[in-house]
């Protein structure tokens, strides 16, 4: 398919190319976002550290095992079944060389990148504890992935978009960062995570200020309690350690889904959202109202 040619089907994002990071899990936000963007007409490049999306065999969910989920390979097949082009990319977003390479590979495979969704996040680990107890290495790991990774991927895509704009193209670029309610309010024993997500919100606002006159919008979506493989894995480990389940209270009495987040992301990626930038939109059922 030639550059600029639309994939099969119509939609508000037909002819557009999206790059979504952190897409290897069956029950993840990344997969939901990639599928929703494809449903709106976009071709999609999806990334993760590994093609299978699982860091270790114990991390695989029962649902993934039951359906024979193969991470990015399965997701690419799903997107192609919808009549869209798709490519799987692997690398570490916290490494400058990997970030640049993955953006370059997406451009080589799909012709360009119009939309970036920074979804990849640090795994749950030893960063969960009081601020005076967590290891410095654990703090650094979370910041490296959640904040540095978002910066590096954004920078690589921004440079690509601005080069196209310099050639006279109307780019209508979109960057959507997946932040968190923990990026708007501190949470006990989440110093690294909160710091990283507050930083993502600040980066979102700064990029929006810098790029607003250059045909690029930058926004963040802040999920609340979402039913994902990571959340299920966390609760399983807590239960094994004898830690009580944390009950979530929100105005809408349910746990959110990846699709709830995906719909907000797709809206921000669409042409109709061209006057929305620098915002950090809560999608949490009204758990945090600011």
From TrEMBL:
GO terms for molecular function: oxidoreductase activity. InterPro entries: NAD(P)-bd_dom_sf, Sc_DH/Rdtase_CS, SDR_fam. Gene3D superfamilies: NAD(P)-binding Rossmann-like Domain (3.40.50.720). The keyword Oxidoreductase applies. The keyword Cell inner membrane does not apply. Keywords: Oxidoreductase. PANTHER family: DEHYDROGENASES, SHORT CHAIN, ESTRADIOL 17-BETA-DEHYDROGENASE 8-RELATED. Belongs to the short-chain dehydrogenases/reductases (SDR) family. This is SDR family oxidoreductase.
């Amino acid at each position: 398919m030639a550059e600029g040619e639309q994939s099969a089907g119509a939609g508000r994002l037909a002819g557009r190319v999206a790059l979504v990071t952190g897409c290897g899990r069956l029950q993840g936000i990344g997969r939901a976002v990639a599928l929703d963007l494809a449903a709106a007409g976009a071709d999609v490049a999806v990334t993760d550290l590994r093609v299978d999306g699982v860091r270790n065999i114990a991390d695989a969910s029962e649902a993934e095992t039951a359906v024979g989920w193969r991470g990015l390979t399965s997701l690419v097949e799903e997107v192609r079944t919808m009549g869209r082009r798709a490519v799987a990319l692997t690398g570490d977003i916290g490494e400058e060389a990997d970030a640049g390479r993955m953006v370059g590979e997406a451009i080589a495979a799909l012709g360009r990148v119009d939309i970036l969704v920074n979804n990849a996040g640090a795994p749950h680990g030893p960063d969960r504890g009081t601020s005076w107890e967590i290891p410095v290495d654990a703090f650094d790991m979370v910041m490296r992935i959640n904040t540095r990774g978002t910066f590096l991927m954004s920078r690589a895509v921004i440079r690509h978009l601005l080069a196209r704009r310099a050639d006279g193209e109307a780019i209508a670029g979109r960057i959507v960062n997946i932040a968190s309610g923990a990026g708007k309010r501190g949470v006990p024993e989440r110093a690294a995570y909160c710091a990283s997500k507050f930083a993502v919100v600040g980066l979102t606002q700064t990029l929006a200020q810098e790029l607003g006159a250059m045909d690029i919008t930058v926004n963040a979506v802040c999920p609340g309690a979402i039913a994902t493989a990571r959340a299920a894995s966390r609760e399983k480990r807590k239960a094994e350690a004898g830690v009580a389940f944390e009950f979530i209270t929100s105005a809408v009495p349910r746990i959110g889904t990846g699709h709830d987040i995906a719909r907000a992301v797709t809206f921000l990626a669409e042409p109709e959202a061209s006057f929305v930038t620098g915002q950090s939109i809560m999608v949490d059922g009204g758990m945090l109202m600011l």
